[in-house]
Specification:
Layout (H helix, E strand, L loop, with lengths): L1 H45 L2 E6 L4 E6 L2 H4 L2 E3 L6 E3 L21
Antiparallel strand pairs: 1-2, 3-4
Length: about 100
């Protein structure tokens, strides 16, 4: 008789734990799907956008720009002054203030 009671208690406990594990596995799958979709959204938003500070009009400029194709120098859409996209440069900075050029220009 005691063994049956102990057996049923253990069986009930095992069932609860199995249900909890199944629920956690399902949540994990859903979270992974959500993370995957968010990564795609972030990649699509980051791809091609450049954020740079214009020192002339003191605005933060966000623009669609491909540094490899369009170069590392752009013009501010607010004031029209030239901006250097130094954050997009992969090499060591060798900007010359006297001649206003660098190796990437």
């Amino acid at each position: 008789m005691r063994y049956r009671i102990l057996y049923w208690k253990c069986k009930k406990k095992l069932k609860k734990q199995t249900e909890a594990v199944s629920r956690l596995i399902k949540e994990r799958r859903e979270n992974r799907k959500e993370i995957k979709s968010l990564r795609k959204k972030v990649a699509s938003l980051e791809d091609g956008y450049v954020v740079e500070w214009c020192h002339y009009c003191e605005n933060q400029i966000v623009m669609l720009w491909n540094p490899k194709k369009d170069g590392l120098s752009a013009f501010c859409p607010v004031c029209g002054q030239r901006m250097m996209l130094c954050d997009s440069c992969q090499g060591k900075c060798d900007y010359n203030y006297g001649s206003d050029i660098c190796k990437e220009m």
